[in-house]
Fold this sequence. Notes:
hydrolase (chains A, B, C, D), homotetramer, PAAI_dom (chains A, B, C, D), alpha+beta, acyl-CoA hydrolase activity (chains A, B, C, D), Thiol Ester Dehydrase, Chain A, HotDog_dom_sf (chains A, B, C, D), six-stranded antiparallel β-sheet, 2 helices
Amino acid sequence: MQAVMTKEDLTEFLERVFPQVRDDFVIESIDGVNTVMRLKVAERHLRPGGTVSGPSMFGLADVSAYVATLARIGKEALTVTTGCSMDFMRKPEAGKDLIAHATLLKLGRTLSVTSILIYSEGSDAPVARANMTYSIPPK
Amino acid sequence: MQAVMTKEDLTEFLERVFPQVRDDFVIESIDGVNTVMRLKVAERHLRPGGTVSGPSMFGLADVSAYVATLARIGKEALTVTTGCSMDFMRKPEAGKDLIAHATLLKLGRTLSVTSILIYSEGSDAPVARANMTYSIPPK
Amino acid sequence: MQAVMTKEDLTEFLERVFPQVRDDFVIESIDGVNTVMRLKVAERHLRPGGTVSGPSMFGLADVSAYVATLARIGKEALTVTTGCSMDFMRKPEAGKDLIAHATLLKLGRTLSVTSILIYSEGSDAPVARANMTYSIPPK
Amino acid sequence: MQAVMTKEDLTEFLERVFPQVRDDFVIESIDGVNTVMRLKVAERHLRPGGTVSGPSMFGLADVSAYVATLARIGKEALTVTTGCSMDFMRKPEAGKDLIAHATLLKLGRTLSVTSILIYSEGSDAPVARANMTYSIPPK
C-alpha cells in the first residue's frame, strides 16, 4: 500500500502528458491510498451565477483518480477511465478553490476503483461525490 | 446532524414495515451521519462457490441508506430509492457476515445521498462500494 | 455480432449454475445484441404496497446483462459483475411480471457493458433503467 | 410527450444562459422525447493522441440531458444536474465531431432522467453511454 512515485514525480509527469491542464490542478498530497488534489478555480471553470461547471468537477474527480492510481502503479500514461458516477450535492462557494479527497479502494490487475469527495476549500460539507474506474493496461 | 430516532425505534420500525427482511439485517449502530448495518449471511444469500449474491449486497446497501436517512427525518415509510451505483471489488469471504458502513453525505429537502462501503466481517478491504439516492416525500 | 449460444442452451446453463433463480427468470429472446428477460413476479419479490423490491429489479438487470454477455462469449460461468448503476423511475404495476430489454453496448477483451430498460408487462413507460459492467476472465 | 420549445428557441436560450459553450454545441434535433446534440470537436477538447477528453464528453452528455428536459418544461434555467453515471467504451475517432442521442426516460415533478449514447460522427458503435438526473425547481 506504498506509493511508488513522489508528489514531485507525479506533478512533473502530469504536466508533461497533460500540458493543457497544468494551470488547473495541483497535487496537494499523495500516499499509496489517499490523494488530495486542488482545482485552481478560474473564470473558465465557472457557470452563470459563479458556480463551478459540472465538466470542471468531473475533470477534478477524474484526474484525482488517475493520480491515485499512478501513485501505486507508476507511469502508465495509457491508463484510461472506463466508468464513473457522480452526485452533485451542493453549490460550490464562489471564489473558492475545490479540493478533492480521493481514496483508492481497489487496485486490481486490470482495474482500479477510486472514491472521491469534493469540497469548497475551507468547508466540510461536500459539494460532490464521485467514483471512478480506471482500466490498467496489461504489462 | 443529530439522529431523531434511536436504534431501537428504527429496528422496531423496519421489522414492522419490511417483515420480509427482519431475519436478514441488524442495525449495529446509528448516529445522525454514520450507520453500521449487518447482513446475517445465510444459504439464501449465496451464489455457487459460496459468494454472496449481487442482489443481497444491493439490498444491504439500500437498507443502510434507508436507515441512515430515516435516522434524521423520522418515520417516513414512503421514502423511496431513486438512484444508485455500485462497484463490486472483491469476493466476499465464505461464512462471514457482511458489514455496511454508510455515511449520509447530504440530506436535502427532497433528496438524500448516502455513500456505503461493504466489508466481510473482520476484513478491512471493502468487497463493494455503493451510493444511494433517496427521494423524500414533501411534508 | 452473432450469438454463439441458443436460447435453449442458455436457459439450460442458467438453471444449472444458478439453480436458486430458476423459478424467477425466463429468457424470452436473445440475439447477439438484444436480450429480453422476464421476472416472474411472486410474493417473495414484493414490498409492502405490492411494489417489486429494489433487489429483485437489480437481480433482473444483472441476469439480463449476464445472459447478453454469455450469448456472445459462450459459457463462462466465472464472468462477474464489476459495476452497475440504476435509476428507479416509476412504481411497478401490481400483479404484472417485469420485462427487461437489455442491449449489449460493448464486448471488449476484458469487459462487457450492457444497458437495460425494465418495464411492467404491457406498459411502455420504463420502471427502471440500469447499466451493468461484467468482467470477462482471460482465456 | 410534446416539446414546448422549438430548436430555435432552445438554441437562442442556451447561447444566452451559457455563452461560454456557444461554440461547442449544436442542437441537431429535438422532439419531446429524443434530442440529438453535436459537439464541434476542436483542439481544446482533445487529449494527447487526439482523443476527446472525458470532461468534454461529460459536458456533451450533460447539455444533451438539459436540452431534453427543457424541451418539455420550458425555460427553467435553474434546473441543475444532481446525478450521473458514464461508461467510456471506445476511443473517439480523431477529427470527427461527437454526436449525442439523448432519450428522456422520465419527467417527474421534481426529477428528470435521461439516457444518452455518444458516437463519433458516422460510426454506429457508441464511444460512451451516460445517464443524467436533473432536479426541477418547484413552480
